[in-house]
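Example A, followed by Example B.
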Amino acid sequence: MANNISEFIAKSKVKAADLEHKRKLAFNIQKYADTVVKGKQQFSNLDLARRRAKNTKWKAIENLDKHLEEFEKNFTARGGKVIWAEDAAEALQAVLQICQEKGTKQVVKSKSMVTEEIHLNDFLAKHNIDSVETDLGEYIQQLDGEAPYHIVTPAMHKSKEDVARVFHEKLGTEPNLSPSELTQIARVNLRAKYTSSEVGITGGNFLLADVGAVCVSENEGNGRLSTAFPKTHIAIVGIEKVLPSINDLQLFWPLLATYGTGQNVTVYNTIFTGGRTSGENDGPEEMYVILLDNGRTNLLRKEVRESMYCIRCGSCLNACPVYKNIGGHAYGATYSGPIGSVISPHLKGMEEFKHLSYASSLCGNCTEVCPVKINIHEMLLENRHIAVTEKLNGFSENGGWKLWRIAMMSRGLMNMTSGNMKARVMNKLFKSSWVAERGKIDFAPQSFNQMWKERNKK
C-alpha cells in the first residue's frame, strides 16, 4: 500500500511541474472540448437523453444476473461460445487455451481497456504469442513500451513530434515525418498482420441481452479487420457492459460518440452475434465471448453501484482538474481519472488503491459532464468513508485527524498560541506536502475571536 501511494505522489509531483506535458495535454483536451460542443447539438433535449440512459443502465444493473444469462442463452443458440471468468487469471487462461488449440503464434487486437486491465499482451508474450495492437493510438503506445494514457485516446499525451520520434526509434523511419505519413506506415505494417493471424481479439462497448450480441464501436476500421480475416474471434467484455435490448443502442451510440469524441456517431459500429453463417463472405468461423468479473461484483455495493453505469466515454477525465495536471500514468491503474479513482479501489483492493479517491478536489465537474449522470464525486467521497469505516487508514493519519479535530473544536486551544507559533507548527507539519510547492503558511498575529473580544472591551 505504501509503495502505491509513494509512487502516485512521486509521479504526480513530476507531472504537475512538467509544463510541456501540461501544454500537450491541454492542447489535445481543448480540441476534444471544442468538438463535444458541436456533437451535443444533435440532441433536441440532451438532459432527457442522459436521464433515460441512466434509467436504462439502472434497470440493466439491477437485473444483471438475468440479463447475462439471457445474453448467454441467445448467443450460444447461434453457435457462439461463452466463457465466464471470475478473475484475470481465468480470462487469461481461457485465451491461452484457445490460442494453443488453434496453434497460433500471433493475434491481432483492437483497442480494449479490459485487455489492458488483465495485462493480456504481457501474458501472451510469456507464452511466445505476439499480440499486435491495431488501433493507431494503442500501436504507438505499444511501440513506446507504455500503457494507454487515456480511456479513449491512448496517446493523448504525445505530440506529433513525439510520435515521429517513436516511429524513428522503433521502426527506423525517417525523423520528423508528418502525421499522415506516419499513419500510412502504420497502415502498411498492420495490414500484413490481419491476414496472417489466426485469432482476433476485441473488447466490447455493449452486450445486448435480448439478441445475444456484442457491440464494438471504433473510428479506424481496425476492429472490423481484426475480426474479418482471423478464423477465431475472442471478445473479452466486462459484465457491467450489458444492455437489456438492441433498441437501447439508438440512445447509447450517439451518447458514447458525442461524449467520447464529439461525433454524432462513431464511424464503425458493429454488432457481432457469433461466427460466420452460410451466405456470409467474411468474418470468423467461430466466436468466443469471455464475460469478465475481476472485481466488478464488488461495485454492486450500494455506495458505488452507479459506477457500473459507466460507458467508458472518458469525458470525466477531460473535465478533471487533477487529471489535467498529473496525467493518466500517475494513477498506476488501468482506469485513470475520476471514474478510475472510484472503481480501481474496488477492482484492485481498497487498501492498496484507496489513495486515488483522495486525489480529487470534489469539484463535481466529473458528475456534470457524465453522459449517464453518474454521481462520481459523491462516490469518491463514499470511498473515503469506506476506507475510514474499514480502518484502512494508518495510525499516524488517524491520530493526526483526531488531534486536528480536538484543536478545531476547542476555542481555548486555538487561542492558546500566537499566530507565529501556529505558523511554525503548520509549516513544519506540511513542509513537503504544501510549503515546498506553495510557500509558507502565515497566520494573523491575533485570531478573529481575540480581536472581537478586544473590540467589545473598548
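Example B, a separate protein, is given below in the same form.
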Amino acid sequence: MKLIYQVDDKVKFGPLVVFAIQQLLAIMTATLVVPLIIGNDMSPAAALFGAGVGTLIYVLFTKRKSPVFLGSSFAFLGSMAAAFAGGVSMSLGYVGLILGAVFAGLVYVVIALIVKLVGVDWINKLMPAVVIGPTVAIIGLSLAGNAVGDILTGGVKVDGAPVATPVVALIAGLVTLFVTMLCSTYGKKTAKLIPFIFGILAGYAFCLILTIIGNAAGIDSIKLLSFDSFKALAPEGKVGIGTFFAVPDFTFIKASKGVGELNGAYIAQIAAAYIPVAFVVFAEHIADHKNISSIIEKDLLKEPGLHRTLLGDGVGSMVGAFFGGCPNTTYGESIGCVAITKNASVYTIITAACGAIIISFLSPFIAFVNSIPSCVMGGVCMALYGFIAVSGLKMIQNVNLNKNKNLFVVSVILIAGIGGLTLHFGQVTITEVACALILGIITNLVLKKAPEEE
C-alpha cells in the first residue's frame, strides 16, 4: 500500500493535531463503552486516560515502529464482571480489576520472554498467510453486526428505547458513510487524510438539523441527537468548574480501600478469570500485528519484534487498568483508520495518546463524544470494519486456492468466524476470532503434508 505518511514521518503541528483527533474519534466510542457495560461506577474518562497512557507505553516498547492505538478490550468483559461477582465490596472489585490486568499482562511478559529466546519463525510456520489472512478478515467481519446495528439506531431514547425510526437513522448513517468515502476518494490531500472527521461532522450536523425540526414540529421519529450528556454538565442549570473540567475517578483511588479485603480465594478467582482470556487475546494480538505489518509493508514481528509488541501491549494494559480499570488491546479501528487515510505516522498515534489523556479531563469533549448518535458511528464503522476485512483478504491473494488444502483452511476460518463460533468455560469466553484461528491452525497442520495436486 502506498502511504502518504510513513511510520517515522513527522507531521506539522496543525495537521498533526487534526489527524490525532481523527484517531481518537475512531477509537473513543468503543473505549468509553466498556466501562459503561461493566457499570459499578466505572469511569469512562478514566478508561480513556488509561488508554492514552497505555498507548504511550506501547509506543515506547515498540521503539516508535508500530502505529497502533490501544483501547479498552472487549475480550475481558466477562473477566471484569467476575471481579465484582460474589457480593464483594465495590473497593475490592476495583482491586480485582487492577490485579486481573496484572495477571493478564504477566502472561504477555512470559510469552515475550519465550519469543525472545526462540524467535518468531515458529509463529510464521504455525500461522502462514493462508491462516492469518482470513483470520484478520474475520476481525472485521465479526464486527459487521455491530456496525449494522448502530447504523439503524438513533440517539434520543424514551424509556430506554430509541424514538427515531430505523430508516431515518439509516439515512443519517449513510450520509456519514458517503461523505467519508467521497472525501477519501475524491478529496484533496487534507480531505484524504481526515475523511472520518468530515464524515462524522456531516452526519452529526444532519442529525442536529433533523432533531431541531423534530423538536419544533413534535415529530419524535426524526429525533436522532440526544442532548442529555450536555445537560449533565450543568445539573439543575448550575454551571461550575465541573462543567468544563473534572478529574477522572481513577481505579487505583477507588481500589485503595479494598486492599485490606484481599484473600487467597479472591486472588485465585481473578487469576482464573483473566489468565485464560490473555491467551485468547494473544491470538488476536498476532492477527492485528500481521494486519498492520501488511499495511505498512514492514514485518513488526521481526522489527521491533514480537517480544516488544507483546511487552508493550502487556505492560500498557497493566498501567492502563491501574488508572482506568480496563485492560487495553490494539484496536482494529485504529488499524482501519491507518489503512483508509494512508497515514501511518507514529507521531499521530503519540499525539492521539496525549490527546486522550488531556481530553479525559475536559468534560465538554467527553459530552460531545457521548452525544454522537449511534447511526453516525455506525456509518463510520462500516468503512473501518470493511477495510479490516479487505486487508485480511489481500493477504491471501497470492495463496493458491485451487489447492484443496488451502481452500479448506480458508473455508473453515471464514465459516467459523462469520457463523459466530464461540466457546464458554465459566467466566472465560473463546471469541469467534480465536475459535476461527485455532480451528484454522489445526486444519492447516492436519493438511500440511497433503500430496501436491495436479
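On Example B: The CA atoms of residues 119 and 306 lie 9 Å apart.
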